[in-house]
Design a protein that fits this description.
The protein is mainly β. The protein is built from 1 helix and 5 strands. The relative contact order is 0.22. Bound molecules: zinc ion. This is UPF0434 protein DAI18_12775.
Length: 60
């Protein structure tokens, strides 16, 4: 995924920074503990499509 694209992406919920998890192909908001999926290299920045992180999940 393009690093420059990642720089301009923010969480749609809190407008905070996102952490890229390459292994999972997800963008994670630590504040909201939400993981947004990356499908075919395109981040899906929809709260309705986001996954809630498990309580014991490490967000790096
Ligand atoms: Zn957020």
């Amino acid at each position: 995924m393009d690093a420059k694209l990642l720089e301009i992406l923010v969480c749609p919920v809190c407008k905070g920074p996102l952490v890229l998890r390459k292994d999972a192909q997800e963008l994670v908001c630590k504040g909201d503990r939400l993981a947004f999926p990356i499908r075919d290299d395109i981040p899906v920045m929809l709260e309705s499509d986001a996954r809630e992180l498990a309580a014991d999940e490490d967000v790096g």
